[in-house]
Amino acid sequence: MLRLSVLDQSVALSGQSQAASIRETLALAQHAEALGYHRFWVSEHHSHPSIVGSAPEVLMAAIAATTDTIRIGSAGVMLPHYSALKVAEQFRVLDALAPGRIDMGVGRAPGSDMRTARLLNPDPRQSAENFPVQVRELQTWVSGIDFPAGHPGHGVEASPSGPTTPDLWMLGSSDYGAQLAAHYGLPYAFAWFITEGQGAAEALALYRRLYQPSLAHPTPEAVLCVWALAADTEQEAWVHFSGRERWKIDRNQGGLGPLLSPQEVAQRPYTRSEQVQSDQLRANALVGSGAQVANKLRQLAAEHAVNELVVITWAHSPEARIASYSLLAQEFALNPVNPS
C-alpha cells in the first residue's frame, strides 16, 4: 500500500494577509487528518516573500492541539541556525503534547538568503560545516541518552522526558543528506519538488547502499516529497497550476512574491522564452484529474521503490487545494478519520 502524506509551506497569496496563510495551514492539517493522510509536515523559511512559515515548531504545537491521529512534523528545522539542545527540548515538548506523533525533520540549507541567515546565526558557515555533529547531538538528546564523560553535554538532559520520542528524519536534495542519513541510520526524505527529480535515483541508491541500521530504524526508510495538483478535470487543474507556473518562471528571473490567482496570471501573457519554460514545466508536472495524478504518483513511487509520497500543493484558492487532496485521498482509498 502506498501511503500519502502532506507538506504545507504556508504560501503567501496575492490579496491576502500572510497571517491568513498560517491559519490556512492549520485548517489544512485538520482536513488532511480527516481524509486519512499519514503525516502533515510544515516547512521553515525566513524573510521569504512567497513562503511565510518561519517557525514550524510553533505551528506544529497548534496542529497537535487540534488533531488526534495524524503524525506531525517539520520539513524541516534548519538546524545550523540553532542549538541542538534547544531543538531537542522543543521537540520533546511537542512529543509531550502529541505522544508518538512527532516527526523531527532537519536540514542543512539556510531556508533564506545569506543576509537573513547571518542574522539568525552570526556564523552560519561554521555551523553548516558542523551539521553532522549537530545531528548526532540532536539524536542523542532527543533519545534521552547521556553523552559520554568528557563531552560538554554529559549529564545535561533535554526535557520533558516521556514514554515516546520524536522520530528524527534527514531531509535533502543531494547526495550529502543521503549519505548522512545512511551513516546515522535515519529515515530520509528527498525533496523531489526542489530538483524536479534530478539526482533522486542516485541519492536513494546511495542511501540504501550505505545504510547502517539503527535501533529505531533497522532498515532504510525513504520518502519522496513531490509537488502535485489534482482537480475534477484536467483543464481545471491546469488553471489552478498557472499560479505556481508563473511563480516558478518569475523566480527563475529573480522575482519572488505572493502566489498569483489564475485571473492575475492571465493578465500577464508569456514572452517567447517564458512560453518555452512553461512548456517544460507542464511536460513534467504532476497535474491533472484525480485519476491522472494518482497514476503518475504510483508510477513515480514504483520507479524509486518508495512506499510513501509526501505531497505539496500550491493553489491560490484554498478550496482548490483541499479539493486536490480530497481527490487523491479517494483515488488511493485512504481511510478517513471521524473527528473526535
UniProtKB/TrEMBL annotation:
SUPFAM superfamilies: Bacterial luciferase-like (SSF51679). GO terms for cellular component: cytosol. Gene3D superfamilies: Luciferase-like domain (3.20.20.30). GO terms for molecular function: monooxygenase activity; oxidoreductase activity, acting on paired donors, with incorporation or reduction of molecular oxygen. The keyword Secreted does not apply. InterPro entries: Bact_Lucif_Oxidored (IPR050766), CmoO-like (IPR019949), Luciferase-like_dom (IPR011251), Luciferase-like_sf (IPR036661). Keywords: Monooxygenase, Oxidoreductase. Residues 12-301 form the Luciferase-like domain. To bacterial alkanal monooxygenase alpha and beta chains. PANTHER family: LUCIFERASE-LIKE MONOOXYGENASE, N-ACETYL-S-ALKYLCYSTEINE MONOOXYGENASE. This is Luciferase-like monooxygenase. It comes from Polaromonas vacuolata. The gene is limB_2.
